[in-house]
Amino acid sequence: MKTTFGVIFGNRDFFPDHLVTEARKDIQDLFKELDIMPIMVAEEDTKLGSVETYQHAKICAELFKKHRDEIEGILVVLPNFGDEKGVADTIKLSGLRVPILVQAYPDDPGSLDVARRRDSFCGKISVCNNLRQYGYAFTLTGQHTSAPKSERFKTDLKKFNRVCKVVNGLRNARLGAIGARPTAFNTVRYSEKLLQAYGMSVSTIDLSEVFGAAGKLSDDDQRVKEKLLAIKAYAKHDTVPPPHLVRMAKLGIVISEWMTANDLVASALQCWTSIQQNYGVNACTLMSMMSDQLLPSACEVDITGVVSMYALQLASGFPGALVDWNNNYADDPDRCVLFHCGNWANSFVSDNEIKTAPILGTTVGEENTYGAMAGRASAGPLTFARVSTDDVNGLIHTYTGEGQLTDDPLDTFGHRAVAHVQNLQSLMKYICKNGFEHHVAMTIGNVADVLDEAFTTYMGWENYNHPA
Known about the structure:
By secondary structure, the protein is α/β, with parallel strands linked by helices. The protein has helices spanning 18-34, 54-66, 84-94, 120-133, 151-171, 192-197, 207-215, 222-234, 242-261, 274-279, 284-292, 303-316, 358-364, 424-433, 448-458, and strands at residues 3-9, 36-39, 73-78, 100-104, 139-140, 174-178, 201-205, 266-269, 297-298, 321-329, 332-340, 353-355, 372-376, 380-390, 395-405, 415-420, 439-444, 462-465. 39% of the residues lie in helices and 22% in strands. Helix 3 packs parallel to helix 4 and helix 5 runs antiparallel to helix 12. The longest helix has 21 residues, at 151-171.
C-alpha cells in the first residue's frame, strides 16, 4: 500500500521564492521514485504553495484535514529559513497526531548571495524550537542539512516511513487474548490499562468458547476443507495423523473468524496445557501461519510479546517471531540458542515441519501435541525487541538491538536458532536487572534504529537500544 505524507514547504518573504519552486519539484520527483503520495498545497492556493503566514497555515491545515485518514506522517521542507510559526500553526490547526520529519536544504558556500542564500541551517533550529513549544514530537535527519535528492536523505525518508508505520500501527492496535495466562507464567503478566493509555486495546475470549465453537464444525464443512488444504500446503506434515490435522483446521477457523469479527491485528494464545488436555493438539502451526500472514501470534498469552512482534513487523515489513532466550552456546559469551515449540513463520524457517512437542508431551501425552513445529532458522541479520509494562512504576519500558542468526551447529528439536549478539552478557544483565520477560521478539533485517525512534520520540517509552 502506498504511503501518504502531508508536506509543508516553509518560506520567508525576504528569501528567494524560486527556491520553493525548486523544492516542490525535488520532493515530487523523490516521492514518485519512492512510491509516496504527497498531500501539499497547490502553487496557486498560497504563495508558490508554501506556508509563510497564518492564512497560509489555515489553507494547508484544511487540506490536511480532508486527508486526515490517509496521512501517515508530515514532512517539513525548508528550502530557505522558513516561517517557524507557520509550520507549527499548520500542524496545530490540522489536528493531526502523526510523526513529523524536519528537513533543511544545505547552502552552497559558493552561492551565499541574495539570489541563492537559504539559511535553512538556522531556520531548522527555529522550526524545531516552535514545534517543541507547541508540544509536538519530531524526527531529525541524520545530518542537520540534507538535500532531498541525496542518498543520505533518501535513507532518512525510508527510515521515517517505517517509523510512521510503527507509531500509527501501535497507536491503533487491537489485540486478542485467547485463553487465560498459564498459571506458572507470572513473567508474561501485563497491564491492559497501560497499553490502552497508548492506544492499544485487548479483546479476550475463553478457551471454552473456542473449543465449543470448533466442536460444532463438521468435517465436511467447506471452511474446514479449505483450512485443511491450507495447513497441508503450509508445511511438511507426513507424521501427523489426519484427525489431528482436522482438529487444527477447526481450531484455526474459530480463531480466524473471531479475529476478523473483532478487527484484531494480533493474538496471544494459551498454547498450553489446556489446549492439549482438552482439545488434543498444539496451536503452534496455526500461530505460525497467522504470523506468516502478518497477523502475529504469541505464545502463553504474552500480549506484550505480541506487541513486540507487531512492532518489529511494522518496522521491517517481515513477520516477527516470539522466542526464548534459551541456552548458552558452548563457551562463547556472545552467542546463545533461541528456541520455541514454535510459532515461527515460514519466512524464518525454510524447512518447517509439523511435529510434536517432546518436552510438553512428557506431561500431557505426546499424542496430544501434534501441531508443534520444527525447523532451523536461516542465517542472516537479526533485530530483536521487547515491550514490557512496568505496572509498579506506571510506565512501559522496552529494549531493542541487532545481531546475526548464524549457521553454527545445533542439534535439537523444535524451532531453533543460534544468535550472535555483540556484548551479549551485558544485554543479559540489563534484561535481568530491569525485570524483562524471558521471551523476546525477533525479525529479519536491521531495524533497531527505527524502533528506537518510534518508541522514544513518539510513544514516549524508555528504550534501551543495545549497541551493536
